[in-house]
UniProtKB/TrEMBL annotation:
Keyword Transmembrane helix part of the UniProt annotation: no
Gene Ontology terms for molecular function: DNA-binding transcription factor activity; transcription cis-regulatory region binding
HTH tetR-type domain location: 13-73
Pfam families recorded: TetR_C_33 (PF13305), TetR_N (PF00440)
PANTHER family per record: HTH-TYPE TRANSCRIPTIONAL REGULATOR BETI, HTH-TYPE TRANSCRIPTIONAL REGULATOR RUTR
Protein name stated in the entry: TetR-family transcriptional regulator
UniProt keyword list: DNA-binding, Transcription, Transcription regulation
Ranges of the DNA-binding region feature: 36-55
InterPro entries on file: Homeodomain-like_sf, HTH-type_TetR-like_transc_reg, HTH_TetR, MT1864/Rv1816-like_C, Tet_transcr_reg_TetR-rel_C_sf
Domain of life per record: Bacteria
Length: 182
């Protein structure tokens, strides 16, 4: 992963990937609004013109970062579900992983939900596909309602904690996200 503090780290490889990794590293210490293409180009060690070939503007860069964030969220949720052994325990684990991902990556998490960068398309979004897959296993219930309820609960809890309205407490997260209440 490209370090946000190292210079000249890019050497005729995949500039797009290097820029995304650098952007993600910079998001660890700032809000997404504070990112700039020129800064990322400098950090990667290329000209801004070279970077503009991959990202014509800041919105294109933010969109790419959000897409990578959605992918990483889905990976974290899938790993949590697998570790919990699937089923209802796995479903709960995906919700808790969602909240913990938000807490560990607040700027990236917020970026995922701005403008046109949204979750929700089961065909094109790994996290939504996993959510719907889990919702379908709850017998006798409308899977879309279950998915909406679970997502609303996890997203609401994440936002309340990020905004300082609730403490970042693992016991609270696990208790609120418990799938037995769906």
């Amino acid at each position: 992963m490209a370090s946000a503090t190292s210079k000249k780290t890019y050497h005729h490889g995949d500039l797009r990937t290097a820029a995304i990794e650098t952007g993600l590293a910079l998001l660890e210490s700032r809000k997404f609004n504070d990112l700039g293409l020129r800064e990322i180009a400098r950090t990667v060690g290329v000209s801004a013109t070279a970077l503009y070939r991959h990202f014509p503007d800041k919105d294109a860069l933010l969109s790419a970062l959000a897409a990578e964030g959605r992918h990483r969220l889905a990976v974290a949720q899938q790993q949590a579900a697998d570790k919990a052994g699937g089923g209802k325990a796995g479903f709960s684990a995906t919700g808790a992983a969602y909240v913990r991902f938000a807490l560990a990556n607040p700027a990236l998490y917020r970026l995922i939900f701005i403008g046109g960068s949204k979750l929700g398309d089961e065909n094109g979004d790994e996290a939504m596909r996993l959510l719907m897959q889990n919702a379908r296993m709850i017998k006798g219930a409308n899977s879309h309602v279950i998915a909406a309820r679970a997502w609303s609960m996890a997203h609401g809890l994440a936002m309340l904690i990020l905004d300082g309205q609730l403490p970042a407490d693992d016991t609270l997260i696990d208790s609120v996200i418990d799938s037995h209440h769906l």
